[in-house]
């Protein structure tokens, strides 16, 4: 198993505010790795640092054995941000075509990939509509389709299923699992525990720190609890206790 994403003692502060504290993570290739944690715990900042959009204050990040940031790496990464970066004046189809052209896909491949990605997220019947008329969930789906367009080796998905109905959520997860079987590496942030269950490895983040990590089964065994939600609460409680003692 090779390591696809490696974070070594990454910390990040915005001014005096410390947002990430000494995070070390390694994500093996072909894994679904979940970052779970409450709102504001630092997940998005961590993902942006892995993409290279934000720089760590201290520490190192490597993706595919290459130091981040690196422009060439972006061809191998599909990044779905939490805030949709779409052109509202363009239709869904035009948005997809624009992003496909950035990846320099040839016309035939472009056509196939756009059809695949739009179908996957259930947007095929809505591609001629301007994005300004899309619902929030449709915009999320279009963002996911864009992240998948260039068939990237690595997917970084920041809360990909927020605002998406249960049926489509299920098919998106089926596709994420299929992509994993193809050997893709997928890092996903979520605060939905049943999605966390589907990950191979988890890192539980709270207040910019990893409070526990392991497979869902390992975590549940370690804490002697059957639900990940309770594991999270217990791990957080132990962290508070540790903090009090030290
Ligand atoms: N550019 C910035 N300048 C100052 N503070 C920032 C900046 N970006 C993020 N933060 C702060 O860092 C903290 C972590 O934010 P982040 O978005 O990474 O959390 P999150 O776990 O992804 O939350 P959510 O699930 O709500 O997206 C928050 O307190 C946020 O206000």
TrEMBL record:
Native organism: Psychrobacillus glaciei
InterPro entries found in the cross-reference section: AAA+_ATPase, ABC_transporter-like_ATP-bd, ABC_transporter-like_CS, P-loop_NTPase
GO terms, molecular function: ATP binding; ATP hydrolysis activity
Name of the protein in its database record: ABC transporter ATP-binding protein
Residues annotated as domain ABC transporter: 5-232
UniProt cross-references to SUPFAM superfamilies, sorted A to Z: P-loop containing nucleoside triphosphate hydrolases
Annotated signal sequence range: none
Assigned keywords, A-Z: ATP-binding, Nucleotide-binding
